[in-house]
Write the structure tokens for this entry.
Amino acid sequence: MALRVAILALIAACQGSRSVVVGSKNFAEQRIVGELLAQTIEAAGVPVERRLGLGDTSACDRALKSGEIDAYVEYTGTALSVILGQKPPADPAVVLPTVQAAYAPQFDWMRPLGFEDTFALIVRRADADALGLKTISDAVPHAPGWTVAVPMDFFRRPDGYQALTYAYGLTFKDARTLDGTDLYGALADRTADLVIGNATDGEISHRPLAVLADDRHFFPPYEAVPVVRHETLQRHPVLREAINSLGGALPADIIRQLNWQVEGEHQDPAAVVRAFRKGPAGQ
């Protein structure tokens, strides 16, 4: 391994020392996958500048298109709906090829990291057991008496709150906007009865919660995939193999654990990623 890294570093030095700028959105999971991308590129011998926590999807998309950043991790369903403005196709398997084709030839979508960060409707496990809730449709009769807590960004998305409630016929007593761990705190203190979070949130594995199945398949796939400027891959040919080596490295249970370490235990994302890369599942 050490010899391979040394060889890659020598090759990279011959290709020029210009840093690769890695960006991310401004939440814990994005900082984790941004760090993973940055550390993987550094291990290939290419210098990296980090611009993690840039903002929302639109901010990262603008930064990529303007050349402010060279790479970041995006989600296929988000690219399809938010950036490209397209409705999810009937066949979920065509989402990744659709965004790959739309971004070419300026940007390359690399191998998926191994998890989908789809949206999730989450309730207290005790309520799910008492009411027999397994799917989103099961919650519809109870929703008029409930308060829902939703991230602000979810209200603005075309695949967000308005479209979801219309598709399922959901009507709530009240709706609040919260983010991050505040969502799960609202369930714990009973100021919300249902929250809309992410399927990879670490709290799901560490609190008495239940995720309701998307039985109408409203949400498209949200595979996490590194997106890289094509000219950056041309400038540093070693990057294609290095970044693609991350394909499948982060199954859902692993990213959920890493998210918990950062959000629940308040560990530094860079340290969490370094420990992951040194472990049996690391690089």
In short: DSSP finds 15 helices and ten strands in the chain. The chain has two domains: 2-113+224-278, 119-212.
